[in-house]
């Protein structure tokens, strides 16, 4: 039986106590991990960060972009996850200069999580928190929501890595709403204890955002609000490459034109190559 397509689902309990967002991100993460040639713990953490960025965007800024960055312990390497309102996401691995390909971006004492999201005004909201020494990416995301967004949330993300790469990936976010009372809170707290091993839920054939939602809210009346598809995609383009070059000092562009060589530029997110000819560079001088 084939797995369901990647998607994110939003719901609210009928008593107004909880807002719940669940996501299946398997194919999205597979795409990002493949182009980054990530393996092992780094692939797992990249997948979890991408899933987390999607959940934060859906909770705080569904129509705007969210970027999440993990800076490894002692400054060793970094991970970047980009989530956009059209449901596309991408990721980036930087192991650090000279680091062997099999090394991992370590999460431990001193690891930082930075989250940036666009505000409706166009300004940027940014928060940086230290990732707890236990709990990994999930704990870092909960700390961010609590300290930077000041929203009490329970978050779990997981990416399963097997012999053939990414086996499954997904997660959930449960927000406590002002109407929550002690009874429902205790029920949800106990329920989430069963999901401390999110891996087990994702490992089942037929896992989906809706299945995860149903498991989370079993026996609790809820209203399913809406769902959106998710996918891996990079937003690079020749136009964006030229726009980046146009932002360089005029003297730098003139030097590249004089050099007369074709520029080879590779997108770090997806590995796509772009060639920029001297004549294209020269056109920037006439418009700058």
What's the gist of this structure?
The protein is an alpha+beta fold. Helix content is 34%, strand content 30%. The mean pLDDT is 86.
Describe the protein:
With 288 residues, this protein is α+β, with helices and mostly antiparallel strands. It has helices at 26-36, 40-60, 136-147, 182-193, 198-203, 209-216, 238-246, 250-259, 278-287; strands spanning 7-13, 18-24, 66-71, 78-83, 88-94, 112-118, 124-130, 153-162, 165-176, 222-229, 231-232, 263-266, 273-276. The strands form three sheets. A six-stranded mixed beta sheet has the order 7-6-3-4-5-11, covered by helices on one side. A five-stranded antiparallel beta sheet has the order 8-9-2-1-10, sandwiched between helices. Strands 12-13 form a two-stranded antiparallel ribbon. Strand 1 (7-13) and strand 2 (18-24) form a beta hairpin. The model has no long low-confidence stretch (mean pLDDT 86).
Whole-angstrom Rg: 21 Å
Instruction: Count the E strands.
Output: 13
Q: Give the integer mean of the pLDDT values.
A: 86
Helix content: 25-40%
- Shape descriptor: elongated
Total helices: the number is 9
In the sheet with the most strands, the strands line up as: 7-6-3-4-5-11
> How would a textbook summarize the main sheet?
6 strands, mixed
Helix/strand-derived category reads alpha+beta
Range of strand content: 25-35%
Secondary structure elements and their pairing?
Elements: E1 7-13, E2 18-24, H1 26-36, H2 40-60, E3 66-71, E4 78-83, E5 88-94, E6 112-118, E7 124-130, H3 136-147, E8 153-162, E9 165-176, H4 182-193, H5 198-203, H6 209-216, E10 222-229, E11 231-232, H7 238-246, H8 250-259, E12 263-266, E13 273-276, H9 278-287
Parallel strand pairs: 5-11
Antiparallel strand pairs: 1-2, 1-10, 2-9, 3-4, 3-6, 4-5, 6-7, 8-9, 12-13
Helix pairs in contact: 1-2, 2-3, 8-9
């Amino acid at each position: 039986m084939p797995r369901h397509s990647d998607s994110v689902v939003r719901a609210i309990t009928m008593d107004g106590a909880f807002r719940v967002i669940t996501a299946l991100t398997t194919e999205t993460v597979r795409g990002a991990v493949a182009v980054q040639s990530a393996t092992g713990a780094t692939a797992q953490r990249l997948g979890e960060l991408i899933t987390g960025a999607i959940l934060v965007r859906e909770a705080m800024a569904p129509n705007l972009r969210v970027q999440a960055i993990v800076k490894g312990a002692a400054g060793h390497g970094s991970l970047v996850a980009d989530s956009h309102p059209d449901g596309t996401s991408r990721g980036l691995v930087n192991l650090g200069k000279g680091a062997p390909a099999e090394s991992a971006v370590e999460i431990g004492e001193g690891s930082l999580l930075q989250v940036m999201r666009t505000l409706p005004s166009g300004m940027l909201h940014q928060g940086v928190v230290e990732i707890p020494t236990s709990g990994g990416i999930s704990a870092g995301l909960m700390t961010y929501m609590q300290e930077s967004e000041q929203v009490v949330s329970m978050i779990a993300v997981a990416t399963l890595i097997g012999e053939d790469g990414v086996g499954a990936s997904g997660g959930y976010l449960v927000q406590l709403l002002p109407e929550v009372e002690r009874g429902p809170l205790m029920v949800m707290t106990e329920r989430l204890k069963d999901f401390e091993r999110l891996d087990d839920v994702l490992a089942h054939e037929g896992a989906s955002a809706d299945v995860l939602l149903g498991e989370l809210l079993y026996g609790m009346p809820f209203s399913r609000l809406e769902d959106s598809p998710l996918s891996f995609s990079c937003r690079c383009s020749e136009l964006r490459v030229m726009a980046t070059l146009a932002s360089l000092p005029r003297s730098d562009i003139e030097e590249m034109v004089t050099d007369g060589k074709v520029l080879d530029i590779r997108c770090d997110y997806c590995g796509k190559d772009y060639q920029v000819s001297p004549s294209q560079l020269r056109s920037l001088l006439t418009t700058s």
